[in-house]
Write a structure and sequence with these properties.
About 15% of the residues lie in helices and about 40% in strands. By secondary structure, the protein is mostly beta strands. It folds into two domains: about 180 residues, Porin, CATH 2.40.160.20; about 120 residues, 60s Ribosomal Protein L30, Chain: A, CATH 3.30.1330.60. The radius of gyration is 37 Å and the shape is elongated.
């Protein structure tokens, strides 16, 4: 296909009157990645150091871009041909093109269902490892297909600021869109009416956020939700206390209380704060000074087990000894004294409490 025929095939919709039967269906904002094929035509010039220049050549490549507003987008473009023929000779060259483009889109304008755009671009053309700096303009049309596929047809003309030559191309690209928002129309033609149609969007879980914007469908009835339809939680501080008991005048943790120590370690890992405070206590037998030291040893014994057996960070564990000063039962009976020979493991944590409408 010669360059005039291909240019006409790509750009013919731009020169047809605006269609009354097809609407522009390209979204307002989206990212995309895709591939393309282009046909280059090089004007007679000293591209390669002689007067023959290059012959017309096809270039495959890829592109990635972002449309950040209804009227503007940016694009990065790459393509390569290892066997570009020279005019009138048997020589071949490797040519690689890189472009960055800024495009202006004619939003809400439709030519046979295509949205037109214009753009400026700059790039580098590598010819057998020799770089040429290019700058140019582009003109094209786009149409969305199958909801997330974008057809892109256009032409670009660029000028080498290094060696003063012109070149042109026509291209056809197919892109996969992502992060799509602001799609103006469906692929169905709109019905002409005197009054605008009321668009009713379903809200399946009745949380006040339409399904098309609800990131968390199926929330509980009367749940308080954020702008994305997700449950709102309040962080509530809570304490969990595990108590273990000791033999008379002993500070070793007995095996029968291993579950309490392990549970405290697991709750520490799950909680938002995870701080542990261990309070040691004794009965009233013995001097106050001795009992104070014994209560501290009991707290330290629990801390040692948390660190060595359950890998709790030492900085998260605080110990305190209260001696005989905080009994929970009378010390004048054996049963009471047994309850006072203890250590309380207090885990400071946070709990997510779901919020509901009143």
């Amino acid at each position: 296909m010669n360059k005039s025929m291909m240019t006409a095939a790509v750009l013919s919709p731009l020169f047809i009157a605006i269609s009354a039967h097809a609407d522009e269906n390209v979204p307002d904002r989206y990212g995309y990645i895709g591939g393309h094929v282009s046909e280059y035509f090089f004007y007679d010039n000293q591209v390669t150091g002689d007067v023959d220049g290059f012959d017309e050549s096809a270039f495959p490549g890829g592109q990635i871009g972002w449309r950040f507003s209804p009227k503007w987008s940016v694009q990065a473009w790459y393509e390569k041909n290892d066997e570009v023929d020279h005019k009138y000779t048997d020589r071949e060259s490797e040519v690689i093109n890189y472009y960055a483009s800024l495009r202006h889109h004619f939003d809400e304008t439709s030519f046979l269902g295509f949205e037109p755009y214009t753009g400026i671009n700059a790039g580098v053309q590598e010819i057998n490892d020799n770089d040429e700096t290019l700058a140019g303009v582009e003109l094209g049309i786009q149409r969305a297909l199958f909801k997330h596929v974008l057809l892109d047809l256009g032409t670009r003309h660029a000028y080498s600021v290094d060696r003063e030559f012109w070149e042109g191309q026509v291209y056809a690209g197919l892109n996969l869109m992502f992060a799509v928002s602001g799609r103006e129309t469906d692929n169905e033609p709109r019905q002409a009416t005197d009054q605008p149609e009321e668009v009713i969007v379903a809200d399946s879980d009745n949380d006040g956020v339409p399904d098309d914007r609800d990131d968390c469908p199926g929330t509980a009835p009367n749940a308080r939700v954020d702008a994305n339809g997700c449950q709102i939680y309040k962080m509530v501080n809570e304490q969990t206390i595990k108590t273990i008991y000791f033999e008379f005048d002993q500070s070793d943790v007995r095996g029968q209380f291993s579950d309490e120590v392990r549970d405290a370690a697991e709750q520490s890992r799950q909680g938002g704060k995870g701080q542990i405070r261990i309070e040691g206590h004794t009965d009233s037998i013995g001097s106050e000074q001795y009992n104070q030291g014994l209560s501290e040893r009991r707290a330290d014994s629990v801390k040692k087990q948390l660190i060595q057996e359950y890998r709790i960070d030492a900085d998260k564990v605080d110990t305190r000894g209260y001696g005989e000063s905080r009994p929970v039962a009378p010390n004048d009976t054996a049963e009471g004294r047994e309850k006072n020979r203890r250590a309380d493991i207090i885990v400071e944590g946070e709990n997510k409490e779901p919020q509901f409408k009143e």
